[in-house]
Every structure is written in C-alpha cells, then in structure tokens.
Amino acid sequence: MSGKNLLKAIILGDSGVGKTSLMNQYVNKKFSNQYKATIGADFLTKEVMVDDKLITIQIWDTAGQERFQSLGVAFYRGADCCMLVYDVNNMKSFETLDNWRDEFLVQASPKHPESFPFIVLGNKIDLEESKRQISQKRAMAWCQSKGNIPYFETSAKEAINVEQAFQQIARNALMQEADVPEFNFPPSVSLDAEQKQDQGDCNC
Amino acid sequence: MSESKVRLLYSRTNVFIQFNDDVCLPGVLCTFEESQKQYVFSWMSEDKISEKDMNIYREVENSKEVILPDSENGYFVTYDEELIKNSISAPLNEIASFGTTVPTEWYVGIVLQLKNELYLPTFFIQKKQFEEDIDVYTQLASWFSILGKNVYRTINDTGSKIYKVCDENEEIDESSTLIGKNQEPESTDLGKFIEDAKFNLLLKFSKVTQKGKEAAAHILGAPVSKPLVPLLPKSFVNSILSKEEVKNICDEYDAARQYLRLMSKEMQEKALNAINQTINLGNYNHYQKLNQETEWHEEQYITEIIKSIEHDEQEILFNPSTNEEDNEWQNIEMPDFNNTRTGNPITAEQWVTFYDNEGKLTKTEEELRDIIYRSGLENDIRMDAWKYLLNIFPWDSTEEKRKEINLTLKQSYDSLKEQWKKILENGPSSPVENESEESPQNANAGDERFESDIYKRIMDRKYRIEKDVLRTDRTIPMYSNSSDNLSSDKPVIYENIETDTSEAGWNSNLELLRDILVTYTFLENDNGYVQGMSDLLAPILGVFRSESDTFWCFNEFMEKYKNNFHRNQEEMKNQLSLLLDLIRLLDIELYEHFEKLNCLHLFFCFRWLLVIFKREFDFYDCMRVWETMWAQKKSDYYQLFIAVAILKENKAQLFGLESFDDTLKYINNLSTHIKVEPILGEAESLYKKFIYRYQELKDRLINEKINYMKKDQENGVVHMEVFNENDNGEQQQNNNSSDISELAQNEILKDPISIINRLAKLSNEIKIN
C-alpha cells in the first residue's frame, strides 16, 4: 500500500449547485442555506479512515462562475480527484458538467486523464420531486459515457449520501495512486513517501 | 622578471574567488612590498604557488609577530610572471574603498573598489574556528591602517555606504566620516604617545606583560583610542578593561559594522561584471566569457536596490544620529510617513455646517475630499455625501439642482426597469431556437451562456442574481429572513446564523437587490451578472434605502471597478501583478517569503481585490474603506495599498506559514476580523513610503544602468543606441558621459516593462519625465 496520506479533492460545478454546502456537510456536519457565494477559493480538511488507513482529505471549494476558472490552475495543481456537482432541479447545471470536466483536465493536466478519478454528485434531491429536471437514469447514462464515473444523488441539506460519496472518491483516489505511483514528480526525485504529500508546496 | 622576490607583509590563506555558481578557486590574499614603499594588494591562485612559498604564506598568516613595513626583516616570496597571470592585484594606492558582503556561517566576502571606480571580484574569506565576521573586516582595516591609510565611512552616489581608504594626509570631502581612528586627531604628546602605542598594542599584544597591561588599560580608556578596542583580541581587552566598558565600546563599533552589510550582493554582482577590467588580471578566459554574456537585466538589480533603500531608511529612522558630522553625510531627508487619520468620522452636525443658505457646500471639492479621506463619515450622512463622492452631485450644486438631478435619475431608472419587466411579461420572442445561430461566446461556455434571445438572457441573469441575492449579507437584519425593517439605525448582526436551517426567506430588500442588479445588467449588457456584484450592492442599498439612488450610485461605483468582473479577467491579473510589484517595493521580506512559497501569483488576495474588501471587513467598516478610497485622488489603485497594509499587519503570522494552502486558509479566515482604522492609517503611510521609495528606486536604477553602460563602453562594447544617426546617414558615436546618462535614463523610463513604469501607474502624483 502506498504511503500517501493526503488527498486533494476539487469540487466543481455551476454556481449555486451546493458545492460549499456539500463540503461543510461532510466536514462539519452542518448545513446553512446562507453560505455566501464562494469568491476565489477555500478548502477544508478532514481526517478519515479509508479501508483501515487514516488519510487526510483536503477539499477545495471554488467559485462556480465560469470566468473565474482561469484561477483554477493554482488551485487544481496536485489534485488527486475531482467531484463534479450539479443541481438535479436545474438542467443547465447538468449540461455544463462536460465543460467542467474538460476544463479541469486541461488545467490540472493529470498524467493519466483517461483514468483520473472523477465522481458526479446530483445534489438537492431533498426538494420536491416535481421540481426535478434530470432523472437518475439520464445522469447515470452520462457518467457511463465518460468512462464509468461513479454517480451519487445527494442532499447536503439532509445529509443524504454525502459521507458515502466522499468515502468513494477517497477510495478511488487511493486506488488510482496505487496504480500510478507518481503523479506530479519524476520518480527519481521523490523517494521518500513522506515528502510526496508536500509536492504542492515544493518551491524548488 | 622571471624570478623576482617580494617582501610579504600580510597573508591570509583559504580565500576563494568565484567564477560562477559552481567554480571556486582557492588562493591567498596578501599584501607585499613590490618595490621600495610600493605596496600591492593581491589575491593569488593557490595552485600556482610553490609548496615552499605556501609555507611562508602560512607562517606569516599565523605569526604573532607582524612585519612592520619600515623594518628590514621579513619573509620573501616568489612573484613571477606566471603568478602575476594568475593573480588579481592592485597597488594599495589604487584602492579607493571596501566593504563586506553579508557573511555566512563559513565565509565573509570582501569587495574592494579601485580609484578608477572598478571593483575587484569578491574575495570569499573562509572563517577560522571561533572567528567572527568582524575580525576579518578589522584585519583588513588594520592592514590599511598600518600601511599609512585612513579609513573613512562615506556614501556613494547610489546611496550605499562605503569605507573609503585614503592616504593619511589626503584631503577628503566633508561628507565622509573617519572611522577606525580617533575622530579628531590630537597633536598633543599624549596623542603621539597613543599613536605609537597603537602599533605596539596592535602588533605585539601577545607580548603584553603585567606591567604593560596597566599602561594599556590607561591608553585604552582614553576616548581617542576607543576605536582601537574592537581591533584587538577579546581576551586581551577583557583582561584590561571592565566588561561594561568593553561592551560599550564594542557596541559602538557594531553599529559601524552594519554599514558594511550594505555593500552586500549588489557589489558582488558588480564585481563579477567588472572582473575583466581589473588591474594585472592576466588571462582569465572565464572572466572574459562571463563578461560578454552579461547583459543588462533590470531584474538582477531590483531586489538589492530595494534592500538597500529599506536598510538606509531603517537606519535613519531607528538609529538617528546625534552626531552632527554624521548627519552631514547622511544628508538624505526622510519624509514623514505618518498617517493623518483623525479617528473621528464626520457627524451630521458637522456636515450640515458645510452647507450655506442655498444648500451649497461652502468648502471646495479638494477640502471635502481631504476631510472625508482622513475622517470618514458617520452612517447617517453617507446617503448625502456618497452622492458627491460617486459623481452624482456636482460639488458646487445647489439644493435645487440636486433635487432636479434626483428626479431625472429616478425617471431614468424607472424607465430602464420598466423595459426589462415588459420583455419578461411578453415572454420569449423567438420560440424556435436554432443551435447553429448561437453567438460566438458560446464556444467556450461553462456555466455562463450568452443567450442571443433577450428574454432568455434576462431570465438567465435573473435566475443567477436571485441565487446570489439569497445568500448576500443575510446576517444583516435588513437582508435577514425575518426583517423588513427599513430603519437606518445601525442593525445588530445575528451570530450563529449557521444553525438556522429554515427555508431562505425572501424579503423586500432582497427584491430591491435583485431588481437593481437585473436593471444594471440590462444597462451594462456585455458583462452580464457576475458573482461578487451583489456583495458590492448590498452596503450601498444599506446606505440609500432608495432604489433609484442605490442603482445610480452602484452604477458609478461599478464604473470604477467593472473591469474586475470582465470575462477575460485581465484587470484582476493586472492588479495582482501590480500588487506584487508594490509588495516588493514596500516589503522585500514579504516578497521573498511569497517567492519561497511559490505563490507570487498572490491568489489569496483575489477576493480582496475582486469585491474591494467587502468580505474582509465588517459591513459598516467596509463602507469606511470604500469612502476613503473614493475620496482620495492619489491613486487609481488605492486598494493595493490597503492590501499591503493588511499583509504587513499579519506579516509575523504569514511568515510562520509554509505553503500556499496555509496562507490562503489564514487569509480567508481573516474575514471580518480586520480592524479598519489601523489598516487605513497604515495604507496612507504606505502610500507615502511608496512615493519616497519609488523616487529612490528610480534614481538608483538609473545609476546602475549608467554604471553598466560606462563599463561596457570602457570594455569596447558599443551600444547600438549610442549611435546617433545623422541626416546624411552617417553614424556618430557619442562617448561623453552626459550622453550615456541621458541614454540610460531613456532606456529605463521608456521601457514599458521596467518596474519603474509599472509602479508609476500606482500614483497620479508621479510624473514620468
């Protein structure tokens, strides 16, 4: 098993789909419908057990408006996994998932884009069924077409599936890491597993 | 000259010179008598010195008996052509000044400047066990002193302090200060006695007997010999002077030592550039190569220049000299960096006194701007004063005129709002949507699509706006769930709102926010609604409570900052890069810290600049920040001075953070915990400091450039720019130095990417000539 114990996860999706709420529900077990719109970026960290291994997951929450994504480069660097979020009651937020995924792959430029761990969350399932615009079936079909991305329907407000979704992405990221021993650094540089987690901060 | 011998006076082994980052040559630094009374200061490459001679060098170095120049005895070493080729030497009389680089744990660098203004390469002297930096320097001073030189502290034309080496009878200019000897040499017998004793003490201290110690204590206690004390071994001095006395004397000396640091790297770099031009250089091909490759890179000078400006400033501010003579050479006038904030916002009672009977302001625009800039406004007069600051009311308008303006604005707003409402009521105009007709902006669409259909466009914007309005300042009662309270009393901010899980309530103030924003995007069609706009609007509605006033004031506010929200984000990038330049000029340590953390992009300041500190200060403090920014006309980028003020305020904590992530987290968490008055005060001080440092940087940079071009010229490198093309096509070379300085100045001042010109944007008071 690899020694990596810090996972960097990026949450992406249109503004107002619930990125900040999902992060806060997962980390702080709290919900508020009054989180301010995220400007720039922020992150929270949480220590979790994944398959008997203690890891720290660092979750990055970014602004949802497209024009701010040019900042992404600084925040996406060294990402281990990416969560794409849309609002099941808003068609547009689902239609833009493609853009978010492509943009992420361009900016983060992971070594193995085809196998990079993504996860899709359809959020706000707590609202009444009549408001729903995207069926589970349609969402799953999209996920399948993108290389079997795992799909979860969540409610940040009611804490439905939030824990499970994060657990899943953490597990997938760790598996990915085991498959691809090095992500960002040429293998000759980083021999010490302890150093690897600092790669984002490296200033050499 | 094949086998000549010279008398060796001093020697120091393990002295290195550096060609580039990785090649260091060991050698010997020495002084010898070339011919009668002609002394030469020299570094010789170790591998050219015979084993026999090496032993002599070591012997002289370690000998407690120092050879006096006048004496006949001494050690002789070979000084042949081969050695000359592999040495860097200068006649002692050619040495004009010296200084040291910032010492490391193992080395002290010595830089010497010659009378022809060239520099010898830096000599890196390896420290011996328990040896202090100061010992190395004082050794050098004593060499000069023994050979009949005086050492003066002075300032060169770029502002750095240099230790001048002069002949004892040489006239020096008034701006220099003699150090290392008594300030006013006395020609009394005692003075003479001390002069003689100095040699004995310096050179033969190891032989001081108990009897001698008493005499020495007497001499060392005399004020004229104080400067000598630090030159002597500590053990010796301690044995004859009380600790307190020694400490006092040494402290004085330590102060002098500070000046040496000024020479630092700046000189090292110069030295490497000029290395090819030194006397007796021989055939160092490396040097020639190095010199040819060295081109003018402004960047390599900036940091060092700024450091030296910072250092000079600190010295003058924190170590103000009480000595008149010192003040004379320190003839840099330090401007007043203090801020002028009053700490007492203008009250309604004060504000009404500014009006005359006609309802016209009796003070001029400049006066009022200055008052508002320094004091700020109490909340209840903002609804009037802000309209002047935001160009709604002319400063000299009468009450009648203002009523008229208000009415017109109300009508225009109502009409705008009416228009988009009507479009929405009419519904979509083109029900059939043709995908291929999508506007080109859609090519890279993420979540913001530019709908070609106006109905859809407004609907889309309204949807986004409502999403954000619902989460804008909901802790402020006028925007909170339960309140329709429109009183202008300062509202209470609810704590722990996060626990509230009820449905987001809609209230009439949120509706006003939404309508104003939709109307704004209807007027400013290109940008559309961008996140952050609702943040800027909320405090303005908080002040005016009236829809049309709020709209027009917001519109004026956005005129100043709408580029922040532009799709290409160029203005944000521009501001972040200007902020970086400013941090560099105002706090080089902070700059180097961010450099070390690999975050010179300063993304952690993005939110500050995008919404002009709306999220960083408390709702009402933010208004104070804004009105201060609007009132001043010093800078179109005053927010950057506020940003540096916040960073400096948190410098100690930031220095403790080791990554971009931690820095971002720390800065995000400052939100609403920043105290407004100290920050605005500091921003004003920083602005003043900026003006001062900018001038310094400009002058010193131009000086560097002049020196660089002069050296190039001496070295036969011809700058294309030095040619003036005549009408008949002939080229004529101008060699005189005034042309060079003009050229250098032009090159720096006309280069748009020069830091000087980038920084010039930060002040409306700076005129580029």
From TrEMBL, chain A:
GO terms for biological process: regulation of vacuole fusion, non-autophagic. GO terms for cellular component: late endosome; vacuolar membrane. SMART domains: RAB, RAN, RAS, RHO. Signal peptide: none annotated. SUPFAM superfamilies: P-loop containing nucleoside triphosphate hydrolases. Keywords: GTP-binding, Lipoprotein, Nucleotide-binding, Prenylation. GO terms for molecular function: GTP binding; GTPase activity. It holds the Pfam family Ras. InterPro entries: P-loop_NTPase, Small_GTP-bd, Small_GTPase. Belongs to the small GTPase superfamily. Rab family. PANTHER family: RAB FAMILY, RAS-RELATED PROTEIN RAB-7A. This is Uncharacterized protein. It comes from Anaeromyces robustus.
UniProtKB/TrEMBL annotation, chain B:
Keywords: GTPase activation. GO terms for molecular function: GTPase activator activity. Residues 376-633 form the Rab-GAP TBC domain. It comes from the Eukaryota. The keyword Ribonucleoprotein does not apply. Coiled coil: none annotated. The keyword Hydrolase does not apply. It holds the Pfam family RabGAP-TBC. Residues 426-447 are annotated as: Disordered. PANTHER family: SMALL G PROTEIN SIGNALING MODULATOR 2-RELATED, TBC1 DOMAIN FAMILY MEMBER GTPASE-ACTIVATING PROTEIN. This is RabGAP/TBC. It comes from Anaeromyces robustus.
